[in-house]
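Data deposition worksheet. Section B asks for the primary sequence of the deposited chain exactly as it was used as input, without tags or linkers unless they were present during the calculation. Section C holds the resulting structure in token form. Section D is free text for depositor observations; keep each observation to a single sentence. Incomplete worksheets are returned to the depositor.
Section A, Depositor: J.P.
Section B:
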Amino acid sequence: MGSLVVVLNGDVLTDADIGAMLGFHAERRARATIYLVPVPDPTPYGLVELESDGRVRRFIEKPSPSQITTNTINAGFYVIDRALIARMPAGRVVSIEREFFPGLLADAVPFFGWVDDHYWLDIGSPAKYRQGQHDLLMGTLRVPIAPALAAARPSSDEAGRVISPSVIGAGTHLAPGSRVGPGAVLGEGCVVGPGAVVEGATLWDRVEVGKGAVLRDCIVASGARIGAGAVVGPGVVLAAGATVPDGADLHV
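Section C:
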């Protein structure tokens, strides 16, 4: 086997077994292998048809309903012989789905699809991102949370209450009477004020939550400040450095 490039899309969360995929690639003497997953509706993705031996027959990016012939889609995880990268022209953007893969088929390059039943989630939307956070907390993936995060999960300042499953980043301070969890993820250096509630929410680093504020099922980026008594409801997404005034009520 020559030198290989392994590619994983940045908006994909999976516990797929890369060793098994590499083994499949070698056994088939493939030049490129794509990880495939079955989904109820393939239209938002790249639909992939396979031959009986796993060779890719056809690749249709974002198929229309009339083009759907299978439910296996491009899962955004690839093993590619390094030499094939030269097929991508320099100096311009190249679509791997619309140009590179169809080019392999046109030139009869050995191109295979690997289908497996591991966890897979497209986290390219706020709702799916939050689902991924929840699934990690609940152990739905077949990999444990990183040891440092797992160790931090049950611990916090004694003044605040943490309900599992939750993850509390290093240096985060929970004031007296505050409650974090269940289903909360807090990054490093956050401050949760007295009597504040953070439930089912994902807070990045250095977020400040004011006294008596309530955050539920939302996403708050780094450095944001939530005023005292403010409510940030389900589905709300706050940008880095955002400021929510005291007593504000934010809902989608």
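Section D:
The helical segments are 18-27, 96-106, 126-138, 147-152.
Confidence is low (pLDDT under 50) at residues 150-157.
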